[in-house]
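FORM 7B - TANDEM STRUCTURE REPORT

SECTION 1: FIRST PROTEIN
SEQUENCE AND TOKENS:
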Amino acid sequence: MKTLKELRSKSDQELLEELQELRTELRNLRTKIMSGGAVENSGQVRNLKRRIARMLTILNERKRGINTKIGEKAS
């Protein structure tokens, strides 16, 4: 799992590409579950959803100009 520092250091384009990959992985995993297949890790869906949410949060913070430190605006 990547840390927030690693994610924040990536460009928007890199985050969007990784986000697309995670969404595809989640879709494939859900399809596998619905078809009755066994999942190696039962918490895998939950982890994927959280990673997607982290990336979307970072992208939205950048879009709104919110800095990660409380009370400061992005320059």
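SECTION 2: SECOND PROTEIN
SEQUENCE AND TOKENS:
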Amino acid sequence: MHLQWYPQILALALLFAGCTNMQQKYAGKDTLPFEPALLPSIVSDASSAPDPYPLFRIREKMHTGYIDKDGNPVIPPTFVAAGDFSEGLAAARSGGYYGYIDKTGHFVISPSYDFATAFSDNTGLVYKDGLPIYIDRKGNKLFEHPFLQAGPFVNGLAMIITASNKPGVINKKGALVIDTIYTSIYPFRNGLTIAGDQPANNMVLLDTAGRCITPPAAIQDANGLKAYYEKLPVNEQTKGRLIDGRYLVDMGNGITLNVRHGDAYYMDQRKYILWQFAKTADFPHDYDIDYQLMGFYPIKDDPAPLYHCKQALPPGVFSLTVMPDIRETEHAFSGANGYRTILANRSGQAITFGTYDHGLVMSMQAKTNTGDWRDIEDIARGCGNGFGEMTLRSGHYIHLVSPAYSGAIKARLRLRFAYVNYGEPHTIYSNEFDGSINPGQLWRSEWNFPSTDYLRP
């Protein structure tokens, strides 16, 4: 959700950690034929040299800028979205597209990608329409490849997944160092990894060249091999991670990001506050984002007779109507702009459908330049509790609010509601209306791109 700062995101992360799938993954003409994802680093104990001139992100009026370690502004908040600096570069979005900026705030790799990750091992991992691309510091593509999912390069190695849905490990030429013959491959610890199928008691010990290593003689099965692997020494980095389990994020160079009693701020080793974040957005705003929101639509009011609704609605049917000319606040959690939306039953019979936490699970869609409709909201995952059922009598309606999106690409939008009424599946669509989105919304689910970014737009 579109937030000015991150305590709400932290709370959601803790909530979703104990959740299960809300429903089966919706796969079909409204989605890509594969599931884009950012894979984890293949090396768990990689270290990097400290940055002698670190910069830290700030947010003001929904834009990102940077300060130095003394709290002095260096790059003004002009980017809707931007990441931390890594190896002298930071991914930043101008309009709807990502490139990389240097520490003067100027683009050194032009913004032309749907999404971009932090530079690692002198390599950037960027995306177009969900497909991963590796580039060098000049923006040149490193190699062509068939991989559908990929992770960052670390120590010359990266994890990938092919159309077979099996992982492998490649080098910087795109060649497989560990072939895609294993069910799973664990990150390297002290130069060693394990790969295979633990439940099937079929695992091997490999080095960074993909060679099989004979484990100690005392190891008799896959469980023993995994226990041996987990005891290998590892020096994990804490930068960007919660270091007290709840409220304190290590930002490196002695700087921490703190969340205490509703306040968020950077603090140095002397306990001096370097930057205090605003608690909320101080002006109305649309969702200018590059990822898919979860398609959860809270029911604003209880069902009411249709004669209370002053807007024209389709006669004789169960209908969904989005009214972009009537602006409303989406809901109290984000305070973002939205459109009045009415789910009305004029079919002549009662309609029953599922609910979740006094809301509906739906998805906004955008029409692409090929004429296809694609989901721009993720309805595949969520908590496994809070389910309910509602019956909407004929002649009644429900008041909802649809999020108002703003982006670099003009598009026709509509809302899709799939439901089951007395065992029969149905799908209805709202009216089409003009809007705008960013390209990342067509494919980037935050569930598949895990991040410790608490300053996202």
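SECTION 3: OBSERVATIONS ON SECOND PROTEIN
The mean pLDDT is 86.
Helices lie at 7-16, 222-230.

SECTION 4: SIGNATURE
Preparer initials: ____
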